[in-house]
Amino acid sequence: MKNLLSAGRVLALDLASTILFLAVFLLTNNLFLAVGLGMALGVVQIGWQYHRRQPIGSLQWLSVVLVLASGTATFLTHDPLFVMLKPSAIYCIVGVVMLKRGWMNRYLPPRAAPVADVATTFGYVWAGLMFASAVLNIALALTLDAKSWAAAMSAWGIASKIGLFLVQYAVMTMIGRRRATAATASI
Question: pLDDT by residue (tens digit) across 66-96?
């Protein structure tokens, strides 16, 4: 359970900007305030890790750069459709980065080393989720108003990531236990 909570903490930190954006936008109906606070949180998270001399992964750097770039573009264009379509570009870029073999290793506790091959496979599943999310976002952005889109995509983003995280955790735990039992039995 401790490992689940530890991995869940990393996922929650990765989703913090999305959660903040959704909460602020739905409570205030102010897109620019929500975007600005999401940008600020991304910078604060990276700054905090840098200050504490903690490693900052390539996905974290990519995330903060994309949040800042897309947030700035939102402020400059004032175009709701642009705001609504930009996550598709982000999802595609993140999906491409997730196609890199072994990107997930930073999220794994040391005891998961025997199932690193399974984590690699799940890395590709995560990439697939990003590409599917990009397509879903385009469909919803072209058919929904901004508030409905924000609620739907934020709920999808959070639920799909938590769901895949839980499936991955369960599968990797099951395979890890089976492999440990098989290794013990062969001794």
Answer: 778 878 888 888 877 777 887 888 889 889 9
Per the listing, tokens 């999305």 go with: 18
Sign of the dihedral defined by the CA atoms of residues 109, 111, 113, 115, in that order: negative
C-alpha torsion 154→168→123→111, nearest 10: 130
Alpha helices, H only, 52-79: 58-77
- Residue 92 CB partners (closer than 8 Å, separation 6+): 130, 131, 134
**3-state SS string for 141-175:** HCCCCHHHHHHHHHHHHHHHHHHHHHHHHHHHHHH
pLDDT tens track for 164-178: 999 999 999 999 999
Query: Residue 23's closest CA among 150, 128, 170, 166?
Result: 150
* pLDDT higher than threshold 60 for residue 115: yes
**In this structure, how many other beta carbons lie within 10 angstroms of the beta carbon of residue 37?**
19
Helix or strand or coil: residue 30? coil
Write the CA distances from 127 to 4, 11, 136, integer angstroms.
21, 15, 14
